[in-house]
Amino acid sequence: MTRITLPRPDDWHLHLRDGAMLSGVLPETTRHFARAIVMPNLVPPVVTGAEAAAYRDRILVAMPEGATFDPLMTLYLTETTDPADVAAAAASGLVKAVKLYPAGATTNSHSGVRDFDKVRGVLEKMAEIGLPLCVHGEVVDPAVDIFDREAVFIETVLDPIRRATPGLRVVMEHITTKDGVDYARSQGDDLGATITTHHLIINRNHILVGGIKPHYYCLPVAKREHHRLALRAAATSGEARFFLGTDSAPHVDPLKECACGCAGCFTATNTMSLLAHVFEEEGKLANLAAFASENGPRFYRLPVNKETLTLEKTASAATWPAKIETGAGPVTVFDPGFPVFWHAID
Ligand code: OTD
Ligand code: ZN
Ligand code: ZN
To answer: Residue 112 C-alpha to ligand 2 middle, in angstroms?
Structure first.
C-alpha cells in the first residue's frame, strides 16, 4: 500500500501554550488535525470554565488563515475546583475533560492534586455527568524510581480512585509501559488510554546512549525496549481503548539545551508521517485510522470527522523543518533518527 486515506485525525492530548508560542505552533497542528484536547497547564493554569473560554478565544484568534480546527478545552483540576463550575462548563459544551496532575509530576503541575480526598466531590460530579478525567499517571514520591512511577501510580492511585468512583470515565494519558497497556486492557470501556508518537519510536537508550539528547527527554520518560514494543502492539492493534494523544509539548531550544532542561517532545509537525511509518513497520497500516481518527471520538462521544487526510509513500524521504521558528524562539521538531517516506498530502 502506498497511499492511505483516513478520516481527518484528532490529537487527544496536545500542548498549545499561549501568546507567541501558541501562534507559532498552532499551524503545525491545524495542518493535519481537525480537533485536539488542549492541555490546561499554562502558567497560571486553566482552572475555571471562564478561564477555559478565554483561552479558547485566544486559540481561535491565533488560528492560521483558512484553518477549521476545533480546540476541545480541558480544566486543570485543583484541590479547590468547584464541581458546579465543572458541570456548567461541560453542559455548555465548552469543556470536554478535566485534567488530573499529581502535584509536581510534570511541567507546570505544581497546582495539581496532593490530597485526592479533596477532589472527591468533583470526581463524583464528573462520574454523574459522564465527563472524562484525563490522568497524568505518575507518582511523585521521591523514593520511587522515575522509571517505576507509572506502574506504582496505577496500583496505588489510579485503581483506588476508579474503585472509589464508580462510573468515572478515565483516560490514562500518554502511557509508557507494558503495565499501562495491561491495565487498560484489563478494564471496561470506561477506561481509555492515549499513546504518543514518540513513545512508539524511542526507548530510554535513545535519550542516554552516545550523549544526552535533550529533545528526547519528556515525561513520563521513555522506558525500556519491551515497554516500547508493548506500546506499539497496543497502538497498532485497532483496539478501541487506545488512541492518539501526541503530547506534543513545545519548549524553546534554550530551555531544552541547558543544565536543567524542560521535559517535552515536539511532534505536531511530523506525527502523521511517523505514525504511517510505524504502522507500516508493524504490518498494521489498516489500523491507523482506528488509532488516529476513530477510537478517540468514540471514547469522547463525538462524531468521527467527515473530512479526510491522505498519506502517501514516495521514493524520496519526507522533509520537515528541523526547527519551527516561533515568536517565542526556535522549537526543535522531534527527529525519529531514521528516514520516513510517508508524506501527508496537506
Ligand atoms: N510531558 N512535557 C509537558 C507535558 C507533558 O506530562 C505531560 O503531559 C509540557 O511541557 O507541558 C512533558 O514532557
Ligand atoms: Zn502528562
Ligand atoms: Zn502532556
So the answer is: 11
Number of domains in the chain: 1
Q: Is 304 helix (H, G, I), strand (E, B) or coil?
A: coil
CATH number of the CATH domain containing 64: 3.20.20.140
Indicate the SS3 state at residue 166: coil
CB 248 within 8 A of CB 265: yes
Q: What is the distance between the alpha carbons of residues 310 and 292, in angstroms, rounded to a whole number?
A: 13
- Walking along the chain (346 residues) 10 residues at a time, the average pLDDT comes out as 94 98 98 98 96 98 97 97 98 98 82 91 98 96 97 97 97 98 98 99 98 98 98 99 99 98 98 98 98 99 98 96 98 98 92
Alpha carbon of 97 to those of 24, 64, 296, 332, 339: distances in Å? Answer: 25, 25, 13, 29, 36
Residue type, 335: D
Q: Is 247 a catalytic residue?
A: yes
Ligand 1 atom nearest the C-alpha of 265 is: 13
Backbone φ and ψ for 48, nearest 5 degrees, come out as -105, 165
Grid coordinates representing 233 are 502492539
Per the structure, the complete domain to which residue 102 belongs is given by 3-345
